[in-house]
Amino acid sequence: MIKIKRLCFDKNILTDLFESSKSFNSFNNSFIKFYKSKPPIIRLFLLRNIRFIYLNKKVVGYFWFEQIYEKTYSIKDFVVDRTADLSKSLEENTVKPGFFSKGLFIYECEDNTLSNITLNTLGFKKSGETLLMEKNIENKTIEEVPNNISFTFMVNNKDENLRCNLQNNIFEDDSRIPLTIDDIYYDQCQDYYLDNASVFIKSYDEYVGYGQIILNNDSYFIVNLGIVKEQRGKGFSTHLLNHLINVCYDRGIKSIYIRVDQQNEIAKMLYLNNGFKFVNTVSIWEQ
């Protein structure tokens, strides 16, 4: 029988599980690494958001989660012992762990057989996929940028409203909840956020796009890259992408990753034409 519990007292098992975080899923944010980097008072709060997976009274895994909205949680680190046969247990007892009924849990994981079996067994359903692409940065990108185009770094405590409005225009969708200023401030407080790595692109005096570089799991990513609807098809996205790559080069970053929706053919061609290569598929799971 599979159970979810708050406590685990077997230090040897925990050590093995914590050390296997990255091998289970390279997108995991290692709980133990984050835990050790914080002062004791913060560690107490972190422990409230970790749960241990028991199979027939033996600890076989854990997950660390964080609330991102009301009744919506992001699983930041998730590991199950590779030798634990959760699927066999499910055949014997079809009752899935009730812990997940408290809200919506979201987890992003490299697509592989082990994670698929594990997450399906725990009642997760795959809700989407993105492609992971990588570019090795060996040289600075040289291109002719028209005189009307310029770039500026976002200034914290000044440009939050501008960024919020741009992103809501760029990523407007009926199924997407618009960003608020609080969302922008929350982003700036996260460990992945880098100062002077968020860039606006302007055409004359008009802001037409935005993109940023973050550091996630010891790897650099370009995220939130886009051009406002009214200015698409004019080459701005290529100029902004190349500028962000040059920012990476100037900072000594050797490789950069980007994620793109499986169905977004325009974005895939943009990245392929600018030296990115496909690395893996990242699945989005919900429970």
TrEMBL record:
Positions of transmembrane segments: none
Domain N-acetyltransferase: start-end pairs: 153-287
Gene3D superfamilies per record: 3.40.630.30
Protein name, as recorded: GNAT family N-acetyltransferase
Pfam families attached to this UniProt entry: Acetyltransf_1
PANTHER family hit by this protein: GCN5-RELATED N-ACETYLTRANSFERASE 10, CHLOROPLASTIC, N-ALPHA-ACETYLTRANSFERASE
